[in-house]
Write a structure and sequence with these properties.
With 251 residues, the protein is an alpha/beta fold. The protein folds into two domains: 1-82 and 169-251, Rossmann fold (3-Layer(aba) Sandwich), CATH 3.40.50; 92-167, no CATH class. The protein contains nine helices and eleven strands. It has helices spanning 45-52, 75-80, 98-109, 120-136, 152-164, 182-195, 208-214, 232-236, 239-247, and strands at residues 5-16, 19-25, 28-30, 34-38, 60-65, 68-69, 83-86, 170-174, 200-204, 217-222, 225-230. It has a six-stranded mixed beta sheet, with helices on both faces. α5 packs parallel to α6. It is globular.
């Protein structure tokens, strides 16, 4: 791996009983970039994400992160290395407040799940950092709100805050704007741009305007294989990409 590559796959393949969901994918994510994984439904994007974080075992191929091979590592150990997937493992406790949720995530980062026996001073220290993270995702006015009562877009922002509490070097975002109103999409897009200032982001995203606004590099998957790769202008004008999207009923 070159020093500017943070994540790389070589020949990554996943077969399910004769069906090849991901086929010989060689992916390279540049350190400090926002990299989008797009493609029609059934292209293998989510399977690819599941392989990267080892929610699924690859049939063949290798995964490298920060210069070391992580193929076969557990999801928890991959997260500890700084490769953290949001929306899948970020635990948002529905009946706790925004502040309590972020504080629990910070406690997890410190290696102890619940610091009930800790001094008030230590917990207040966590409150300070928790409030910084809450402010960073635009939720300060919701600090005392119970998570289950948050509007959908704000709940997503809380999930990003709990992911940021783990201080990841690289974040995997799985359809961060799915099911959102236009206003929420704009807010989450701005938030992703902000959190990406000092880390790498790889995202699966269906909303192509979000992809166009955010991504430095786009990898297009079709039927489990890389169809095209490049910046948005290059990819969106690629005849194969246009055919893949239009041919599968996508605009």
């Amino acid at each position: 791996m070159t020093p500017d590559t943070i994540l790389e796959t070589r020949g990554l393949t996943k077969e399910f009983k004769g069906f090849v969901a991901v086929n010989d994918v060689n992916l390279r994510v540049r350190r400090g970039s926002i990299h989008a994984l797009i493609g029609p439904n059934g292209a293998g994007k989510t399977t690819c994400f599941n392989l990267l974080t080892h929610f699924l075992e690859p049939t063949r191929g290798q995964i490298f992160y920060n210069g070391r091979e992580i193929t076969g590592s557990s999801p928890a150990s991959i997260a500890r290395m700084g490769l953290v997937r949001s929306f899948q493992i970020s635990a948002v406790f529905p009946h706790l407040t925004v502040l309590e949720n972020v504080r629990i995530a910070l406690q997890g980062k410190r290696g102890s799940s619940f610091d009930f026996w800790r001094s008030e001073r230590v917990l207040d220290g966590l409150n300070g950092r928790a409030r910084e993270l809450i402010a960073a995702v635009g939720l300060s006015e919701y600090e005392s709100a119970v998570a289950v009562e948050l509007p959908y877009g704000r709940k997503r922002a809380l999930e990003i805050a709990t992911t940021l509490a783990l201080d990841p070097e690289m974040m995997l975002l799985d359809e961060p704007t799915a099911g959102m109103t236009h206003e929420d999409v704009e807010r989450i897009t701005a938030l992703i741009r902000r959190v990406a200032e000092n880390r790498t982001v790889l995202m699966v995203e269906h909303n192509l305007s979000v992809v166009a606004n955010l991504s430095h590099t786009i990898t297009v998957l079709q039927r489990g294989e890389i169809l095209a790769e490049g910046d948005y202008a290059g990819v969106s004008n690629d005849p194969q990409v246009i055919e893949a999207y239009l041919g599968s009923g996508h605009g």
